[in-house]
Amino acid sequence: PTDPARRTADLLERRDAVFATVQEHYYAEPPRIERGWRHHLLSTDGRSYLDIVNNVTPLGHAHPRVEQAVTRQLRRLNTNSRFHYAAVVEFTERLAALLPEPLDTVFLVNSGSEAVDLGLRLAVGASGRPDVVAVREAYHGWTYASDAVSTSLQDNPNALATRPGWVHTVDSPNPYRGRHRGVDAARYAAEAVAVIDGLAAAGQPAGAFVSETFYGNAGGVALPDGYLDQVYAAVRRHGGLAVADEVQAGYGRLGHWFWGFEQQRVVPDIVCVAKAMGNGHPLGAVITTREIADRYREQGYFFSSTGGSPVSSVVGLTVLDALRDEDLQGNAVRVGGHLKERLRALADRHRVVGAVHGSGLYLGLELVRDRATLEPATEETAELCDLMLDLGVVVQPTGDHLNILKIKPPLCIDTVAADFFADTLDLALTQLGHAG
Ligand code: PMP
Residues 6 or more apart from 160 whose CB is under 8 A from it? Predict the structure, then answer.
């Protein structure tokens, strides 16, 4: 068909016919997005949208420096990563230098799921203990091991009932909405420690504790103070290792901290990274100690054909250069701080705004029907996202109740765009009748 709207609908039908049904897309009638520039997305019917969701592109869309570096490298060489070339050495050195001692040894992979999977295998291999403790309501990936430790209900409503026997879960340490809200957030750590001690007492000590370092599924909520310190100490006391999932939280998005674990003042044994590393190109990494990496040699095998390929390494280096040269972590502090203030002010005008979570440009706006009971405003959030699209903003819900707007735009977003987002939200909430 020549009509662009018809062509978009046809393409969607073809997509639905050939894609596995578990792979969903945003919106019932999504715009067809074929171009992006910085924090903007452009549809084929000529509209421009502000992109509030793309944490895989911290530098923004179509970054010229990445484009030029990739093109140059593709013209020269892209190959299986067993060959010897400089880019992979430089990239691995740069990554290792971003982590504190004793984390000095890097594995390069292609995604967050692979990174968490390998992180768990390293922990289980090095500790010699197959049991793993994970936090409920978290998402860590789709591979066998990363899926096993993922229990967010939005991704799998049967998550808890379908865990393999080696996975043990602890309560989700959500200070805003969890069981101990308003009581004592320190109880989450005490309870997690009790689970870890209980496993050891039962002769099944955990080989690993895995969690995000800043709580993503709940909309970017900081873990209770001291949580990771206590839980890491407990798992280590029984011979296990601390695995940090920095796939969403890491790489400067939090603004004040490059890594989420810095906010908790801990150093994990194994750090899993992805998303932002490649600005959309598939890149992931696991960084650990030489000792843990060496012990894995006796337990398992690692080789990734394209992990750390010449092109991937050049992308990784270019992203790190641009993050530094454009001071995007600083931008996350400045624009993120301003945006958080603007969003907080919306709570005075709209009762449905229950809380604004997060740090830097990793924010969550939680919508509730009642500020005392915290009844989630799930349908309202879906309605709001549809209206926001009409008004030119791509924003999506997260959380087990899908009542939190996840706010994780490209880190290059400026104050003008942040104000546009806040003004548009204000307008949409008013239109939906949630003012006052
Ligand atoms: N861990 C976290 C915290 C994530 O948010 C994600 C992706 N949403 C993953 C792991 C998996 O990463 P990927 O989609 O790159 O496999």
Answer: 136, 151, 169
Whether the Cβ atoms of residue 287 and residue 247 lie closer than 8 Å to each other: no
Q: What is the pTM of this model?
A: 0.96
Query: What is the DSSP code string of 219-251?
Result: TSBPPPTTHHHHHHHHHHHTT-EEEEE-TTTTT
Domain ranges of the chain: 31-59+327-431, 64-325
Q: Which atom of ligand 1 is the closest one to the Cα of 111?
A: 15
Q: pLDDT tens digits, residue range 83-96? A: 999 999 999 999 99
Distance 6 CA to ligand 1 centre (A): 34
* AA letter at 358: G
Position in ligand 1 atom list of the atom nearest CA 141:
11
Question: CA–CA separation, 413 vs 342, rounded Å?
Answer: 15
Residue 156's pLDDT band, with cuts at 50, 70 and 90, is confident
- Both tokens of 213, joined, read 């370092």
Q: Which CATH architecture has domain 31-59+327-431?
A: Alpha-Beta Complex (3.90)
What one-letter code names the amino acid at 213?
Answer: T
Residue the block writes with tokens 């030119």:
392
Q: What is the DSSP string of 72-129?
A: HHHHH----TTS--HHHHHHHHHHHHTS-TT--EEEEESSHHHHHHHHHHHHHHHHT-
| Assembly ipTM | 0.99
334 C-alpha to ligand 1 centroid (Å):
26
Cis-peptide into 102, omega within 30 deg:
yes
As a whole number of angstroms, the distance between CA 213 and CA 227 comes to 10
Q: Residue 146: which of 109, 112, 106, 192 has the closest Cα?
A: 112
Q: Does an H or E element contain 386, and which?
A: helix 378-390
Distance CA 418, CA 434 (A): 21
Name the residue type at position 164.
P
Protein residue closest via CA to atom 13 of ligand 1 = 112
Band of pLDDT at residue 23, cut at 50, 70 and 90? low
Mean per-residue pLDDT, 404-428: 98
pLDDT digits (tens, 9 = 90+) for 369-412: 999 999 999 999 999 999 999 999 999 999 999 999 999 999 99
Domain 64-325, what fold?
Aspartate Aminotransferase; domain 2 (3.40.640)
Tens digit of each residue's pLDDT (9 = 90 or more) over 342-376: 999 999 999 999 999 999 999 999 999 999 999 99
Question: Distance between CA atoms of 40 and 164, rounded to whole angstroms?
Answer: 42
